[in-house]
Known about the structure:
By secondary structure, this protein is α+β, with helices and mostly antiparallel strands. Helix content is 34%, strand content 13%. The protein has ten helices and nine strands. The strands form two sheets. Strands 3, 4, 5, 6, 7 and 9 form a six-stranded mixed β-sheet that branches. The protein has a three-stranded antiparallel β-sheet with strand order 1-2-8. The longest helix is centred in the last third of the chain and has 17 residues, at 214-230.
Amino acid sequence: MTHPTHSRRDHTGDRPLLTALQLAERGLPVLPLREGKGPMGNCRACRNNACGGRPNMKTPGPCECPAPCHAWAAATTNPHILTSTAWAPAWRQAAAIAYHPGGAGFTVVDLDNADAVGWARQHLPGTRTVATTRGEHWIYRGAMTSRNDVRPGVDIKSAMSYARWLGPGTGNMAQLPDTVRALVVKEPTSARPVSSFIAVPAPAGGGQCPHRSPAYLERGIAMAEQRIEEAPDGIHRTVYRMFLAVLSAHGRCGCLTDTHIGRLFTAAQGKGESLRHCEDAWSNAVAALGM
């Protein structure tokens, strides 16, 4: 897949659909953005995730809805979808265009201010850069997990994320370096480890899961991680519901470990939740269950 190289006249302007089609032809999955740089809202049928959520990363959206209704998951390179009557109202409202970097095999390091740009110039290999309102996008060849706030003023936009299209940029696109991959796996910047603020009551049955199956616990944790990672919106609500579900099933028997809880926090932070929000959601779930 090649990165887009085209003239300035097909930059976003009065004809966002034309620009979107040109980008899609070059392999970038695209979607319209409304005023304020946000994705189009859910349609009535899909509001509040009523459609049941997104089954896998290969679908144009989280359900059979034909509209650009589910943020990054609606991004597509299919010209028939882009020009369909279901997408027409969105294009009429579109203030900008976004693309799904991970879907094109790219990673965008979003540098939100001058300090972040200065850090990147000192620590990251040079690559294709695009000027933004306050900083720069550094684009690498290769996809990875997305995460916000990996360091001050720096977000990673790749899989399950979108980036605003601001033009082709300048410079040659470099291969995604391990330096960038490492940014999303660093420990949360907090003085308190997970084990110091999560209090799960001691089990009554000697610490053995009453379901008598470690696989049951593993499936529960994996399902909660998946639901969090695939939530198209309402992430605060989704994180709380998943924490509540895991605690209600396993919080009293003592089979939960810091490793399991850390996995849930990692999934939530991967969707942009702060450590503080994770702590609050966990505490609220514990309180709701009377634990």
